[in-house]
């Protein structure tokens, strides 16, 4: 599943509006709207926040299969 479809699916599974989902994620409504429409990709910070939510809700995002192993360049292991 593409990230834009996965985000929309997750939000709907959580029974949240785009505004409510944006508040929970700590982003603006327009950001969630752009993610869902495929106009923007979540930054690494938000991919890390979304990954466990996808896993908990049984949503597989093919584009992010190894998100748990990703690290920032300066992130200490």
UniProtKB/TrEMBL annotation:
Which domain of life does the protein's organism represent?
Bacteria
Q: Which residues does the UniProt record annotate as the domain HTH cro/C1-type?
A: 7-51
Its protein name is Helix-turn-helix domain-containing protein
Which Pfam families does this chain map to? HTH_3
Q: Which InterPro entries match?
A: Cro/C1-type_HTH (IPR001387), Lambda_DNA-bd_dom_sf (IPR010982)
One MF term in GO for this entry?
DNA binding
Q: Which Gene3D superfamilies match?
A: lambda repressor-like DNA-binding domains
